[in-house]
Design goal:
By secondary structure, the chain is α/β, with parallel strands linked by helices. The chain is about 45% helix and about 15% strand. It has a seven-stranded parallel β-sheet with strand order 3-2-1-4-5-6-7, sandwiched between helices. Helix 1 crosses helix 15, helix 4 runs antiparallel to helix 5 and helix 10 crosses helix 13.
Amino acid sequence: MKGVLYSTVAIHRHAQEMARAFDEIGQLKLWHTGWLHDPGRSLLSKSLEMAGYALPSLGRALVRKRLVVPMGAPIKMRRRGDWAQAFCGKILKRPLWADRAWEWQEKSLAKEAARLMESGEFSAYLGLEHAALEALQAAKRLGVRSCLVFTSVHHKFRKKWEKISEEGGFQVSPVERELNRRAIERDRRRDEEMEWADYIRTNSSLVGQTLLAGGADRRKVIDISLGADLANFRPFVPRKKGEPLRFVVSGRVSQRKGAQFLLEAWQKLRPKGASLHFYGSVMLKKKELPGEETGVFFHGNVSPEEVQKAYRAAQVLVFPTLCDGFGMVVPEAMAAGCAVITTKNAGAADWVTEGKNGWKVTAGSSKALAEAMQKALDAGKKLETMREAAQATARHNSWTNFRHRFVHTLADTGFIRTEIP
C-alpha cells in the first residue's frame, strides 16, 4: 500500500508529532530524517546511551536527539550531516562551519527524497521549508501530492523587523551578521518551494498572514497551531506572599529575539522585589549587558530539565521576539504555570488572551514591554488566576489535539485519502 514520504532533518517535538500523526492512521510509508537517538532501534544508539551516563555533555546531547513518540513505521536516517554539524559546533566551536553543515544536510535530504519518490511507493510527500525544493519538484513531475511545512515568518516580514532593530543602534555579533547574510540565498529557495508545493501548512496565523503578504497562493495556505507537552504536567506552585516576582526568558539572547528592547524596558522600570532571568546563548555584545546588581541574571545554555525548573520557579515568561513563526517556549512555560508576555509578532501569541493568561504587546517597543511587566507586578492575586488560565490553555492545546487537527485538516484538503475516525 502506498503512503506518505515524510522528509525532514529536524527531529524536534513538532517534527516527531507530525510523523506520529501519520503513523497512527497507517499513512506513514517512510520517515526520512536526520539522526534520531532511539536505543531500541540500533546498537549504536544503545552504546551511546550507556556512554551518556558517564559523559554528562553527551547525555544532554542525546536528550535533544531522542525519539520521544511511539513509532511503528520505518525510519531512514541520514547521520553524517548531524555528526558534521556537532563536530564543527561542539568540538571545534565554529558556529559558522556548523551552519554550513546544517545547510548541506538540508539540501542533501531534499535530493535524496526526490530519488526515493522515483520508486513509485509514495502517494504523498511532506517536507519542511528549505529542505524540500528538489523533492517538491520531483513530486510535481511524478503526480504525487505535496505539502510544505512552513514554520518561520516570510523573509520580507523578518527583514522589516531586522532593519527596525538595526536602526535602533544595537550592536550584533559578527556571527549573527554573517548568518543574516546567508539567509538571503536561503530565502530565495523557500520562495521557490512555495511555488512548487500543492499545499503550505503553517504553524500559526502569523506565519500564514506573512506568507500571503509575501505572495503565497491563498488557496494553498493552511494554518494549524502547535501543541503542548503535558507528560510532566503538574499544578504550579502559587507565589507566596512577599515573594519576589520572577520573570524568565528562554532562548537565544539576540537582536531578533528582542532582548535589547527587554533590557531597555527593565532599565526604565527598575522594579524592586523582582528579577529577570535569561536562559540561552548570549549573542549581544558583553558591554550591552547589565550586571546582576540590576536584578538581571544570564544563566547561559542549560539542559531542558533546568529550563523546566526555571519555568516552575517563575511566574511570568517574557518572549519579546521581533518576529517568530511560533515560539515553543510559550506552551512550555504555560504548561508549567507561567503567565506570558509576548509580542504580536510571535506565532504563539495565538495562545495568549489579553488579560486572561498573559499580555500581547507591540514588537520592538521597550515602553510596551515595561508597561506589560508593570501590569504583572501590579496584578497581585489576579496573577495566580492568570497562571491557572495559562495551564488550562496548555491542556486544551495538547499534542494529542494537535495530531487530531493535523490529520483531519490534511484529509479535508485531499492531501491524504483515507477514512479517519
